[in-house]
Amino acid sequence: MDRTLLSATAKALVAPGKGLLAADESAGTCAKRFAAAGVADSEEMRRTYREMLFTTPAMKSTISGVILHDETIRQQHSSGQSFADYLNSIGVIPGIKVDGGTRDLAMAPGELVTDGLDGLQKRMKEYFAMGARFAKWRAVITIGEAIPTSRCIWANAHALARYAAICQEANIIPVVEPEVLLDGDHSIDRCFDVTEAMLRTMMSQLADNKVSIEHTILKASMVLSGKDAKNRASQAEVGARTVEVLKRTIPAAMPGIVFLSGGQSDIDSAAHLNEMNKPGVREGNPWPLTFSYSRALHFAALKVWRGKPENYKAAQNAFAHRCKMNSLAAKGKWTIESESAAK
Ligand code: 13P
Description:
Elements: H1 3-13, E1 19-23, H2 27-36, H3 43-54, H4 59-62, E2 63-68, H5 70-73, H6 83-89, E3 93-97, E4 102-104, E5 112-114, H7 120-129, E6 134-141, H8 150-169, E7 173-180, H9 188-208, E8 217-220, H10 235-249, E9 257-259, H11 266-277, E10 289-293, H12 295-305, H13 312-330, H14 336-341
Parallel strand pairs: 1-2, 1-10, 2-3, 3-6, 6-7, 7-8, 8-9, 9-10
Antiparallel strand pairs: 4-5
The chain binds 1,3-dihydroxyacetonephosphate.
1,3-dihydroxyacetonephosphate is lined by residues 22, 138, 177, 260-262, 293-296.
């Protein structure tokens, strides 16, 4: 394990004012998002879309790393350069999603577990050779009347820890992502309790599996009311409760924490991150807090692009705008006025 390389990668991923671009949607997810935006789906369209994002000039100043899908890390920029080499050439670290998606957890109705540990050691070596320096594994926790069960939490935490150890052995920074879903009508308190249980169990599993916390990045979901809840918590409350649960469970040794957007609106995703980084709060945070968004960074751009070459530049502008807004939020300098002022 090359601690010097791993430390340098982790530090660069959470550099001030920068965050991660999650562009690792599977072909199936891409097909759904493309259909919603009226874009015909094909491997070449997915390549073109990713190239549109990666060549947006604002990437250099706002994005530290990109999470790629297996298909994309094997694809090339129009110049013939691999996407991983292209990203490196602009100072952006290539990363790779290595989980195999979720499946039903046996004997546990409504609960999921993530696949992908089989053969992972071998694949990880190949990804390192292709230029990946960090990886992502997403576990999914659903809130319902009698779920999540402790068995589901444990199974997902254990898989995250096994994955993280494999990453570090291959000198790749593990991004561990236990996503507590927004779906449901639960209260913010219920989300807090589930998130706390998940994070506690995950930290214990990471320790049991000899994972170095100093070389691990958490990709967390925010503590939110369910999307169908009647009285949804305010932006200030979401920021405060999220920081509270992280302080309770995540050691200061962790080099940084990034967030997924998870179906929140673009504005909420920026506002909530800003709440956690604003003056008076950020001084008390032991770790940098930044974004690792997919939808809240580039769904707006997809809707502008619609697969048409004449919309390419306007789509890049839409993406650049969200990059800049979330970069401001990572510094605690975002305001609702900046949304229109910067356009
Ligand atoms: P969203 O920001 O759209 O939730 O996606 C982030 C991600 O990488 C989920 O695994």
